[in-house]
Amino acid sequence: MFVGTLRMDAARHPDDTRTAELVGELSMKSDRFLRWWAGQKVVEPSHGTKSLHHPIAGRLTLRTEALTIPGDPDQTLFTFLADPGSPSDEALTVLSAWATDHARATDHAAGSTPDAPKTPRATPYG
């Protein structure tokens, strides 16, 4: 899906050097990308299901939606949602907990402390 979307963007903007550089780099580093790019499939992003492998969460199957920004066809917001109660939903919950724990450990190692509780400040108006 994403390679076809990139191909559509490249066709819309044939003089975009950053896109050309990205396609060149991906083509040199990934035989899989090169095969997909050579397939010349163009995709208008909309919706579907995507299977991903995350190094911590494992295999995820997520529903996708592509939301185009009105008046700017070059901007698209992609959402990825797991079905409630699915193995992917549970894996994302575990990943979220891991990310929170990892961030806390990183902050602690760097000497940061959590923000002190906020207390109301007195103002001259009571």
| Radius of gyration from the alpha-carbon trace, in angstroms | 22 Å
Side-by-side strand order of the widest sheet: 1-2-3
Mean pLDDT: 82
Structural class estimated from helices and strands: alpha+beta
Low-confidence stretches: 116-126
Could you tell me how far the N terminus lies from the C terminus, measured between alpha carbons in angstroms? Answer: 59 Å
Largest sheet: 3 strands, antiparallel
Number of strands: 3
Q: Give, in order, the helices and strands.
A: HHHEEEH
Number of helices: 4
- Approximately how much beta-strand content do the residues carry? 15-25%
Question: How would the global form be characterised?
Answer: globular
Helix content: 40-55%
Fold and architecture overview:
- With 126 residues, the protein is of the alpha+beta class.
- 44% of the residues lie in helices and 24% in strands.
- The protein contains 4 helices and 3 strands, in the order αααβββα.
- Strands 1-2-3 form a 3-stranded antiparallel beta sheet, with helices on one face.
- Helix 2 packs across helix 3.
- The chain starts with a helix and ends in a 17-residue tail after the last helix.
- The C terminus is likely disordered.
